[in-house]
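Appendix B, record 7
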Amino acid sequence: MPLRATGIRRYHPHMRLTCLLAGISIVAVGCSNASQPFAFAPARKISPAPEVKADVSAKVQNWRTVVYANRRPTGDMVFYGLADWRDATLAANEAGATEVRMVFVFDGPALPMVLNDAAYDRVLGTNGGNPWKSLIADLQKGGASVESCGTRMKELGVGNADLLPGVKVDSDGWTRVLELQSKGFSLFQS
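Structure tokens (predicted):
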């Protein structure tokens, strides 16, 4: 299409989309490279800390949650998410909750997080072993049940012996999540 004499260019419609996507990508890369998990968190602890008085004191009597972990464990998102669940479970127990039941069902791209070092390296083509194993062990120590999708394990070519200690195998991860929801568990998908 010829340019007008006024000097205003006409852009192809896809050019706007390309520019928009490029801008979003730049922002996403900037955020993913941030040194802190939360962009607006202070760089250092404020001392002395200001007084904080809670207006609402949450009490948890019966806490039953199933966490369906089925996303690729990249960056801080999964690590801090699972570490937050670990800490919340400990806090609920310390607060005197009568029932704290957490079930983590690992499926899809997150399943390698529950593999032992040799299987993790074989499945993902790495050499360093499973970097998530201590976090999984912490969840178990806090009383959480850690389970793996048997269907996905077959697809990956791994068996029961390839799992971290204490990890249970479900016949199918998503069906297990549905079963737990039918028993009153709240669903959180990570």
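Remarks on this record: The longest helix spans residues 13-32. The longest strand covers residues 62-69.
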